Amino acid sequence: MLATTDAAGTLDLTQAPPVPSSRRRVAAIARNTFREAVRDRVLYNLVLFVLLLSVSAIFLGAASASQDAKIIVDLGLSAMLLFGAFIAIFVGVGLVWKEIERRTLYAIFAKPVGRGEFLLGKYLGLCLTLAVNVVVMGAGVSLVLFYVVSRGAAPLLAALWPTIALIYLELSLLTAVALLFSSFSSPVFSAFGSVAVFVIGHFTADLKGFATLFDATAAKGLLLALYYGLPNLSTFSRITPAAHAIAPPAAHVLGALAYAVAWDVALLAAAVLLFARRDFK
Amino acid sequence: MRAREGALVLVLVLGFAGAVGMARALDAGRPTLRAVADEAPYLAPETARRLALGFEGLAADWYWLSMLQYIGRRIEESRAAGAAVDQAVQLDRIKSVDPRVLRRLLDMITTLDPRFTAVYEFAAVVLPAVDAEAAITLLEKGIRENPDQWYLHQQLAYIFWQRGDNLAAADAFRRGANMTTARWMEHMADNIEAKGDDPQVARAMYARMYEQAQDEQVKEWARRRLMELQSLEERRAIRGVLSAFISAQQRCPRDWTEVAPALARAGLPVSPLGPPLDPSGAPYMLVLSPLGCDVTLHPVSTVPRG
User: Is B27 inside a domain boundary?
Assistant: First the structure.
């Protein structure tokens, strides 16, 4: 409790300092998570990305038989997804664990911060880191496209940015998955589980197809349960059409946004529920 | 401390050098492995598409680059074996590729990225030399996957026309004509049906392929085919002028200057020094022999020699 003085200069030791609103507390945690990611050199992956794109832009022209623009889009967006997934999973699973390991969690919870606010702040902080990452990478791909196809880059760019938005939605979902796992388990298990969700998430569309092949109700039910119980990440995969300057339709982007938000909300709610029951003694 | 660091750096350098040296020694004792690109993909294309985890486009690019390297290597090997291979023009005559490898690579690329239309275009030129049926199947797949790309019908028509099936070529053109307001495809269908072997049809075919090509190699190949056709027509006209001169003079001309005015009247481009010029800008050569005279391409000419 801090001492405060009134206008007359009287010292009042009984008045508590104003408690920041829940939104401010979440924002403060998010800001700190972002700063910590920057301090941990998470954004250094951008250097590698720029090197990859620059080398590709120089050498692909001769090697790809005039398909360099397509390959640069494929390469740039695939690297964006891959690097982003690595950050979302491997930084995401460490978000809670590091606070426990360093015992800073106790200091945080000694303040008027709820467990849900803590998790939400961590999630938003990493989403902010990923947003910076994705925007810088997107700008890099756009610049290289201007260099490779100065004329005729407009249709590719028109398809590029909505596709980047879809990639970002996928990364935000992966962050929520990583946070869910880290709210109740060890980092190794969390990383394993998150990678498994990333891999299976790209197969779930096939699960629905397989379900139609089975006559047995139980098998069909199990496959359909898996299909609906796991995020279908192929919803966000539009890299290949983008390389042919085919932008995802606005309805698809909006649908994907709603789908990602629904999953994010559900995963964060589950994470908060599990985290609230966790005993840190 | 510095001495210790220096020793560690020395150990690092020696260790790395030793590893490289050992790798070279071990490689020398091993048979050379075939390049990966020389082998057909192991995975079924559909399986590869499923396993790509959203990176299908990148995987397709990888196989595209592998295929180009594979064809390039085959051309280099043919060249080393003494064949006069001119890559740009002989794209449709490469016989040294393994049809199985090429077929599998093309199928893999187009399954991973069915909209990669440059692949169908490239396949329409390269694949018929080793497997025309596979080329037709691939183009039909391309048309199925890209119903809005009318020019794929033109590529299919080219394959049929190349193997002398003028009716099928005309049919492919008509199917393409239904998708576009440009009437030239209908005219091409009519012309091929009526006189598929006419040089004018060949000229129109290559001109359209040149105009529509997205792939630079295919564009260059079509340009040089057009150059070859033009040169063939020019040589026919020059032979006509030479025949007329022989009929009038009872001898061959001593050099081009004697027939330069007649060549110019025939509409042929003539150099100020006398010789007619081929489409690449090189002078034609007048060949004089006891049997008569003829015209041929100059060694510096870049016109394909067929």
Answer: yes
pLDDT confidence band for B200 (50 / 70 / 90)? confident
Residue in chain A lying closest to B111 (CA): A240
Same domain for B130 and B246: no
A84: confidence class by pLDDT, cuts 50, 70, 90: very high
Q: Is the pLDDT of residue A1 over 50?
A: no
Per-residue model confidence (pLDDT) at position B195: 82
Residue tagged 């407009």 (tokens) = A154
Q: Do A263 and A176 form a contact (C-beta atoms < 8 A)?
A: yes
Residues B69 and B130 reside in one and the same domain = yes
Q: How far is B50 from chain A (nearest CA, A)?
A: 7
Whether B271 and B253 map to the same domain: the answer is yes
Domain of residue B132: give its range.
38-224
Last residue of a domain, one of B224, B250, B277: B224
Whether B173 and B271 map to the same domain: the answer is no
Distance CA B219, CA B225 (A): 10
Residue pLDDT, tens place only, B93-141:
777 788 888 999 999 999 999 999 999 999 998 899 888 999 999 999 9
Q: Report whether pLDDT(A63) > 80.
A: no
Same domain, B243 and B174: no
Among the three residues B167, B200, B224, which one is the final residue of a domain in this structure? B224
**Is B68's CB within 8 Å of A239's CB?**
no
CB-CB: which of A71, A202, A236 is closest to B61? A71
Cβ of A62 under 8 Å from any chain B Cβ? no
How many structural domains compose chain B? 3
How do residues A113-170 score in pLDDT, each as one tens digit? 788 899 999 999 999 999 999 999 999 999 988 888 877 788 899 999 999 999 999 9
Q: What is the CA radius of gyration of chain A?
A: 23
Q: Would you call A36 an interface residue with chain B, using a CB distance cutoff of 8 Å?
A: no
Any domain includes B229: yes
Burial category of A11 from C-beta neighbours within 10 Å (exposed 0-12, middle 13-18, buried 19 and up): exposed
Q: How far is B3 from chain A (nearest CA, A)?
A: 32
User: CA-CA distance, B30 to B25, in Å (whole number)?
Assistant: 9
Say if residue B61 is in the same domain as residue B163: yes
Cα torsion A142, A147, A149, A153: sign = positive
Residue B192 lies in a domain: yes
Closest of B43, B72, B39, B71 to residue B59, by C-alpha: B43
The reply to whether B126 and B266 lie within a common domain is: no
Task: Please list the alpha-helical segments (H only) found in B29-127.
Answer: 45-51, 56-80, 87-90, 99-112, 117-126
Q: Indicate whether B172 belongs to any domain.
A: yes
Q: Indicate if the pLDDT at residue A87 is higher than 50.
A: yes
Residues of A in contact with B149 (CB under 8 A): none
pTM of the model: 0.79
| DSSP category for residue B43 | S
Chain B residues lying within 8 Å of A256, measured CB to CB: none
Q: Which residues of A touch B216 (CB under 8 A)?
A: 65-66
What ipTM, to 2 d.p.?
A: 0.79
